[in-house]
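thread from #wetlab-drylab

HS: before we spend reagent money on co-crystallization trials with glutathione, can we at least see a predicted complex? here's what I'd submit
DV: go for it
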Amino acid sequence: MTDQSDFELYGFWRTSATYRVRVALNLKGLTAQERVINLDAGEQLNDNFLKINPLGAIPALIVKGQLPLTQSLAILEFLDETHPLPPLLPADPHGRARVRSIAAMLASDTHPLITPRVRKYLSTVAGFDDAAVRAWLVHWFDAGLAAVEKRLATEAATGAFCHGDQITMADICLASITATMRVLKIPVKNAPTIDRIIARCETQEAFAKADPLKQVGAPAAT
Ligand SMILES: N[C@@H](CCC(=O)N[C@@H](CS)C(=O)NCC(=O)O)C(=O)O
């Protein structure tokens, strides 16, 4: 690396999974030199990038001299283990499992259904027109967030944030989904607990700095 950043981060301005890593880096006070992989230009499928992630997906985090790290949740866990403060998980095992469970509902069960590769398959192979693709996106965002809202609104462990009053990886994953919905101009519906938690997250610099529209390559806000 030519600059003084702690890491290299392969990402793109609007992506949900890269957002998660940006927020975690910001919370930990770490910096990354970003390498843009333009998803609109299909750069995730270039040979050079496929050597970094054969799945053709960002983010990838490079720790100098080591193999690339992929998968945002694995990267969040890595950052938390190597830079423990502030922690992204609570101390108790049950709480840790709850936070990982909410994070997985968002990053593992909701996010994959709305990725560019799925949208491309729907429009080029499955015969979806633009309206049908949009209806698909709205359906899966709504289904994922409705389930998370139900948990957050009814479980006693919910506090100012998804788990108690400290930011955890559940909040990072929740905000990563709502940030992407905002980019796609899809509203969050009937989710007062999510709305409250996201409003609180957005007061935090670590989240504000990761706003997709503030990243290199983002279009001017409309
Ligand atoms: N589970 C992965 C998902 C990675 C992923 O799908 N990233 C999207 C951007 S948010 C991507 O690069 N998609 C490329 C494509 O779908 O072609 C993670 O959390 O890192």
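DV: The pocket of glutathione is lined by residues 15-17, 39, 44, 56-59, 71-73, 107, 115-117 (CB under 6 Å).
HS: ok that's useful, forwarding to the group
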